[in-house]
Amino acid sequence: TKGSVGFLGLGVMGREMARNLAAAGFGVKAYDVVPAAIDAMAETGVTPAASIADAAADADIVISMLPDTPQVEEVVRGDGGLLSSPPRGGLYVDMSTIAPEATRKLAADLLQAGVQMLDAPVSGGPVGARDATLTIMAGGEAAAFERARPFLQGMGSTINHVGASGAGQTVKLCNQLICGINLQAICEAFALGRACDIDLVQMREVLMGGSANSWMLENLGAAMIEGDISAGFRIDLMMKDLRLVLGAAQQNLVPLPATSLVTSQYIDAQAHGEGANGNQALFRVYDRMSGR
Ligand code: NAD
In the chain, what are the domains? Predict the structure, then answer.
């Protein structure tokens, strides 16, 4: 094989990324706390691992795709985690979206154990993960980035080193800020169009041809109109990202009024039990506000 990967986290995104790495000729040994998630990889050429340490032991690189900061902390600092069982190749790339501050601390502590860490969160959703066309934004040492690049190329098509440790997460948070406000803008346009008896299916297609087009309109707009709320990217995960955005804003004394407003609407969605639904379910906040 071209190189060996220990892969941690086989959820909506991770299972596709691990499969693509195996398809690209890398040896992939993968672990998830949910055994069924490992079993589901059976036909993909990915080898099951019994633990984090088992996935990491012979790996040139360990890659993780986990929900949030606490899970990344756990796989690094927990029993049998990467600090006590470092990958043979001394390279760890976390591709989850987590707090930039926590990332910097993890990178510093891992360095003490001889492991270089990159934060390399992604954009492009499950479709980008499936097609290996993710946009990857990496923070950390340039030399570590160069070592990781061939592996990243197995999962993404737009791959950039954006700065020191934590910078990848910061760029990703800026990405999420745009996605959230963009989604809110689409909800508002659909709420107004609907109330004025416009055919939303046609309206979406028309708008996609003009300057209001966006990834969100293309990828979530149709599901929003059809009332298909399956995830995709869960409301809970976006809420996690918006909380990280507002945390960074507060720390750096940057007012983000539009982000604050859309975050309130995500809280509304969560409070109405929509956390496990896809982000297009934000439209249901507008359904309720307009009595639909
Ligand atoms: P997910 O919840 O579907 O997958 C996470 C996986 O990690 C699950 O299978 C879970 O069992 C596993 N896991 C949790 N704790 C673990 C541990 N301690 N050890 C091993 N495995 C563990 O989430 P997802 O949608 O794949 O997203 C993963 C990350 O990528 C998140 O940070 C998310 O914000 C980000 N992201 C998601 C999307 C998207 O569209 N879904 C897009 C870009 C970025």
Answer: 4-164 (3.40.50.720), 170-289 (1.10.1040.10)
